[in-house]
Structure formats: structure tokens, C-alpha cells
TrEMBL record, chains A, B:
Belongs to the beta sliding clamp family. GO terms for biological process: DNA strand elongation involved in DNA replication. It comes from Ureibacillus thermosphaericus. GO terms for cellular component: cytoplasm; DNA polymerase III complex. This is Beta sliding clamp. Residues 136-251 form the DNA polymerase III beta sliding clamp central domain. InterPro entries: DNA_clamp_sf, DNA_polIII_beta, DNA_polIII_beta_C, DNA_polIII_beta_cen, DNA_polIII_beta_N.
């Protein structure tokens, strides 16, 4: 194996695939990056067994030569070390050569590194995904969908399926739901050409967070291919594979109330800042609970009390209050995360009494719904 | 106690004094910030017992009222909480009032926090420093002096006095020395009006690092007042007190060689990058050792070898080599830190054989000297 490549292009590729590599892996070869050199270019692969990221650097692009391929072949190099070496090389021309099976030479200017690689044939094979169930979504829309749901997955592994986001395909809609059983986030997206072979999958929250870091804020399409065990997200040069979570995701639709006793419209940003302040006192207690109370003249009172620290109290004006008076307590953290997901637009909060779950959504847009269970205080 | 203040000014002051506060303190009241309100303004104090930082916010500045003082008094408020509350207040007008001894009310807009403060009379008193031994130094020069020496202090407490930087006053020169007994950094500064009452003090490295963060890159003078136990650095609004280390600092002057067998002039920046690359392999071994070898035709070879990882080898051109051929090994970390302290100018390295300490300095400037002990390799 031997090729010459521009350092900057190699670095870009390494930046993508290293995101999949975990130093905590129990499979030693997965601390490495697999390099496959073919006649068409160089394929880099990084994986932590759950997530696999591949990026392909073509030998030629728009008629310009990017890589000079002298001899094809494969090798696995320790990821952290290889990355840092490439980053610190003295010139933009890099030559990588493997001799005597695993002896790898990295040359640039008058610098030469010798590393001992690992046998690429020992690197785990990627699962095959049939191209049957496939659809497209713009990258920036996919990023929004991720950000608006993934924060609500369960952190604990006590019900593993809740650590993922449930994606459901119903007719022409993708419905994404996450819940940790104390709150729920739901995002609906209308899309064309959705497949009908697979109805429901659960994608690990961790995978979606990593995918979000890799996707750019562009409207370029991301091609999504689903199977029962794996999902593949494909952009221009990056392939992002994630395993799926097993087990049945609970039916959450009947949790969402559809009759309400108190409806409050307010400015999400002002409300978020007030909750953030109240949380300074609230979070010193274990539960991070704030109290919310309707007042007359379209105002609400937010307060919190921690016997050891002190208390906070504040009134904010709201646009309108319809229905019954209300005193309710909830987690400041959940409320802040829900408000951030709705992007501080005009928000409507709909309550069904102090002991029942309540929902938040944008006044203008029904596609994002956030649900929070109140906290009982005595 | 009661006053109204602009939030931004209060925040600036809090930013300075919180740098002294450590969450690891064993003295509970030192997790707090002391607020003293007098007729002239507000004095904020933070301390971890070793370092104390004070900042004074005047009631009036350039004819503008900054603080409206209603009632004088003092209180101690939990630093982290107070800081975050002030940062998140809804308006730029803040009112702080203490009622019933320790009950503190912080008001802004329609937000009100109630905190329980601590009794200011329980806050440790600052030591008095006589104004006798006093001199001035521009802030940017003081920052350079700190950065060029403090990295070389000992990290371990086995010889406590070596965790500080020794400041010596000799005639019209301030001589600053730090060593961990494997390498040494020395910076000389010519200054006018140096005091003659105190010849040698040792300032904790940690204090100098914190001071460096507070000082701005300006040529404004910093007034320095020394006693046998304390040093005070005074800028426009900030007073920075540090306790001094006890014990005799070793006489380091006789460690510095003055006869040399090999003199090498080179570009500090090129050399630093080459050592940085070699260190990628070297640091995987416990000692982080690189090998340095003179070649013919004004070049040197830098190499490192780690049985588990691999090796690296590189040649760099130098400006000149005078004297004997040389093969020597040293810590890559020490070499990089020394080169950074000399700021990548034209550097001269002077050796007295492979087993003896060697020195680095700028070709143009004698005020910074770095000394490194080589590592014996077999």
C-alpha cells in the first residue's frame, strides 16, 4: 500500500471518522482507523461497534488530482496517534507507505514516522443494509429533528429502549418521539417518498448526537436507509451507520392529553430566562422544582425555595390566560429543555390541572410538541 | 446595608475576585465573597487563604454615578450562587439590601432573590503590608516575566520552596528564577527605584498564574509592595495579595555553565515544531525523551523511539554549529517549554558535553536564560 495525499484533505476525513472512535472500547482494533486504498481513492473507517463512520476521499475531484495512488492495500493505524501526526506534519504533502505487511511509513518534508499498524482483515465487517427502505431529508431539517427530540431520551439504562428516539413512519409523515417517562418530545415531519417496509425503529440517542455534530447546516439531502438492525445516513462523502435498539417502544400517543382546563400564551424567551433564574435556587435541591402560579391581569408568578440557600420570586407578563386558575410545580430543567426545543417563538402551554401532564407547543406550528409531568409538592 | 448598582460593573468586579475563590477550601466562609459598602463605593473581596483579590467599585467615576449608596454595611454571600444570580438578572439595575442582619435581597426588574448571607466579621482579616518596599513595573512586562519563568516551578510538594518563583533584587535588577531541579528558567529585568529592604522572596507559582490571568496586556504600571510574608500587586482597581513561601531558595547561579564545547544557532520556531512532532512518539514512553544529534553541513537530526508505538526521525537545517560534534538526549516537554519562553526568536543553544546541563537563550537578548539537564540514555 502506498499513496500521496494532501494533508488538509486527509485531516478533514480523519476529523469525521474519529468522532466514532471511543477510547473506552473493549475491542482493541477499534482504537484504530482503517485505511483502504483502492484505485478510486482512500476510504477511512472509524467505529465503536455501535456507530461506524466512513468517509471516502476520491483520487480525483473536479478534474484535480487529490491523491496519487501508487499501490492499493489496507492497514489499521492507532487513531489518536495517526491523527496528531498528520496534524503536525511540516508540509501539505504526505506520503503513506506500508511495507513488510504492517510497517507503516508516514513521510512529509524531511520528517518520517514509522508506526506499526494492525491487520485490516481483523477489523469488523460492516453489516450489509439492503437499499430497499430509503428516503431523503435535507441536512438542516434532520439536525432540527434531532435537536428537538434527542434531549428527552432516558439517561439511565434501566429501560434501554427509552435511551433511543423512536422513529415512526405513518403515511407521509415521519414521527419522532423521545421520552424518559417524566417528559416527552415529539416532532412530526411531512416527507415525500417515505418507505413502507419498516414502520418503527429506535435510534440510540448517542448516535443521533454524534450524527448532529457531523451534519452541516445545509439543505443538501441526507439519504437514509433503514433495516431492522441498522440505519445508514449518507451525505456527500460521509457514511454514518448506527445500530438500532431492540425491544418494543411504548405507545406514547395515549399519554398526550387533548382536553385542557388552562391555556396560557407567552413569550418563550422571556419565560425561559425566568425559569433559568428560578433554577439557580431550585437546582440546589435534588429535584430542581419551580412553582408556577397564574395571577390576575395576564401575569404568572414563578418561584422557588431552597431551605439552605434562600428563595426567588418573579412575575412575568403573559399574552393571555384562558380557563381555570392554576398552581403547579415542575422540573426547571425539563421546562428549559422543552422551551429551547420550541425555539423561543410564541408558545402556548396547555394544562389539565396541577396533577396532570401538560403540553407546550408553538402557537404557529403544530409539528413540535413537548409534554412534561408535573411534580407533586406538599 | 443597601445600594443600587449597574449589573455590568458588579459583574466585572465579581469576575476578578472569584478568581481567588476555590471550591476546595476547608474554611467555609471563604466560599463566599465579602461585600463592604462604604460612602465611597463597594469593596469586593475573594480569597482562598493563599491568594486574596480585592476590587473597589467607586460610587462615582469621572463625574458619573455608578452606585447609589443608601446604607453602608457588610455581608458575605456564597460566591458561585451570587455570581450566577447577578449574571442572569433581567435588567442592568440591581438593588442589594441586607435586612435583619443576614437576610439579603437582590432585586432587578420584577425578580427578587432572598439569600442568607454570612457574618462579614467572621471573614479573615488581610495582613497589613508596610508600604516601605515598593516598586512599579508595567503590566505587560510583568506578564512576560511570569510566563517566562513560572512554567519551570516544581509540580510536586517534596521541596515546597521549589513550587515558587524566586525574586531577587540585586542593585538595579530584578532576577526571577524557577527550577524543578531538572530544568531552570531565569529572567532578568532592569528596573528603576527598586527597594533595598528585601533581597529575596519566593512567590507561589499558583499565585503568579492567577495574577497573570487578571493583568491586562497594557503598559499601565503595577505597584508591587513586598514584606517578608506577603506580596501585594496593585493595579487601577484590583489589589492582589499572595502569601510568600517560607524557606531558603537554593543558590542556582553556580549551576549555570559558562564554558561551552558546542554552540548551535537555530530558528526557534522550526526547532519547536520538530520537537513537538518527535514528542508524539516520545511521550508514549514515561520519560518523553528525544535524541538530538549534530550532522555535517549545518543540520541536526531529531529522533525518538518507542518500542510499542514506533519511531520518528527528522532533519532540520540550523544556522550554524560551532565546536564539537554532539549526541544528547533530553525531555521534549522541557525543551518545548523553554523554546516557548524564548518566543521563537533566533535561539542559541550551548552545550558542555552529553552529560552536562545546557543553556538556551535568544541570540539578541541575554535577559532570558533557560537551562535543561540532559537525560542519560544507554
Amino acid at each position: 500500500m502506498k499513496f500521496e495525499i494532501m494533508r488538509d484533505r486527509l485531516l478533514d476525513g480523519l476529523n469525521d471518522v474519529t468522532k466514532a472512535i471511543s477510547s473506552k472500547t473493549t475491542i482493541p482494533i477499534l482504537t484504530g482507523i482503517k485505511i483502504d486504498v483502492t484505485d478510486n481513492g482512500v476510504l477511512l473507517t472509524g467505529s465503536d461497534a455501535d456507530i461506524t463512520i466512513q468517509t471516502f476521499i476520491p483520487a480525483e475531484e473536479d478534474g484535480n488530482q487529490i491523491i496519487n495512488i501508487v499501490e492499493t492495500g489496507s492497514i489499521v493505524l492507532q487513531a489518536r496517534m495517526f491523527n496528531e501526526i498528520v496534524r503536525k506534519l511540516p508540509t501539505n504533502d504526505v506520503e503513506i507507505e506500508v511495507k513488510n505487511e504492517l510497517q507503516t511509513h508516514i513521510r512529509s518534508g524531511k520528517t518520517e514516522f514509522h508506526l506499526i499498524g494492525s491487520d485490516a482483515s481483523e477489523y469488523p465487517l460492516l453489516p450489509e443494509i439492503s437499499t430497499e427502505n430509503r428516503f431523503e431529508i435535507p441536512a438542516d431539517l434532520l439536525k432540527s429533528v434531532i435537536r428537538e427530540t434527542v434531549f428527552a431520551v432516558a439517561a439511565s439504562e434501566s429501560r434501554p429502549v427509552l435511551t433511543g428516539v423512536n422513529w415512526n413512519i405513518e403515511n407521509d409523515e415521519l414521527i419522532c418521539v423521545a421520552t424518559d417517562s417524566h417528559r416527552l418530545a415529539r416532532r412530526k415531519v411531512k416527507l415525500e417518498n417515505l418507505p413502507n417496509g419498516i414502520e418503527s425503529i429506535v435510534i440510540p440517542g448517542k448516535s443521533l448526537n454524534e450524527l448532529n455534530k457531523i451534519l452541516g447546516e445545509t439543505s443538501n439531502p441526507v439519504e437514509i436507509t433503514m433495516s431492522n438492525q441498522q440505519i445508514l445516513f449518507k451525505t456527500d462523502h460521509v457514511l454514518f451507520f448506527s445500530r438500532l435498539l431492540e425491544g418494543n417502544y411504548p405507545d406514547t400517543s395515549r399519554l398526550i392529553p387533548n382536553e385542557f382546563k388552562t391555556n396560557i400564551k407567552l413569550d418563550g424567551k422571556t419565560f425561559l430566562q425566568a425559569i433559568d433564574r428560578a433554577s439557580l435556587v431550585a437546582r440546589e435541591d435534588r429535584n430542581n422544582v419551580v412553582r408556577f402560579e397564574t395571577l390576575e391581569d395576564d401575569a404568572v408568578k414563578i418561584s422557588s425555595n431552597s431551605p439552605e440557600i434562600g428563595k426567588v420570586e418573579e412575575q412575568i407578563p403573559v399574552e393571555s390566560i384562558e380557563g381555570e386558575e392554576l398552581v403547579i410545580s415542575f422540573s426547571a430543567k425539563y421546562m428549559m429543555e422543552a422551551l429551547k426545543a420550541i425555539h423561543g417563538q410564541d408558545v402556548i402551554i396547555q394544562f389539565t390541572g396541577a396533577m396532570r401532564p401538560f403540553i407546550l407547543r408553538s402557537v404557529h406550528d403544530d409539528s413540535i410538541l413537548q409534554l412534561i409531568l408535573p411534580v407533586r409538592t406538599y
